[in-house]
Amino acid sequence: MDKIKINDVDLAYARRGKGTPLVLLHGFPLDHHLWDDVSSLLEDKFELILPDLRGFGESTTVNAPYSMDDYASDIAGLLDQLGIQKAVIVGHSMGGYVALAFAKLYPDRVSGLALISSQVIADPPDRKEGRYKSAVDVAEKGIGGVVEAMTSKFTSDVRLQAAARVIMEKQKPDAYIGALKAMAERTDSTSLLSTFKFPVVVVHGEADALIPVARAREVKAALPDSYYVELKDTGHVPMLETAKETADALRHLA
Asked: In what order do the strands lie in the sheet with 20-25?
């Protein structure tokens, strides 16, 4: 992977393929390898940019609180360095929160947007409190508890659970802590949807145990012209569970 310095962070990224620039933002607590199966199906249609969000994978982070806007600023800086003015922004789960922040801050730089297993609402108080508790647990006991809690919620496929667990166990505690706090403090993006002047794709697993499919249906209701795919018998990681269907949906943004 290549690395560039942005916002006091060494941001690692991979770049491959030719065509419409498309940024793939991974979810929590993962890295760009989440997209391996999907990216191989899109290289003929898109110039793919696959960053490790700050703290995750090979990217570094800062010893201070940060927000979804800061993650989005990192991506804007990356695109600047690559000489890319506009791109399709695709986000999985937490990556979707970053994609929404990017669309809020840099609407003229978005040629299309996809939310995969994500949502636009903010955390309710109990969920926010839970994230802060998890951050404390990671600081005191390490990442093991979060990894254990999330593994079975990603997917019911035991083989894919193991694959996700491998990625999660490679991540640094600081990345977990920073992301948990940033997610807890993210704002509601519901009103943002009406401002979108670009095509939107929504992909969600019917059996998602982390973010209910109802959240995706709400986005579809707010954006009736969006391209919507609801995947039967699929959990929180459709890019692993149903890679071809996920890639086919993203092709609508070429």
From this structure: 2-6, 9-16, 46-51, 20-25, 87-92, 110-116, 200-205, 227-231
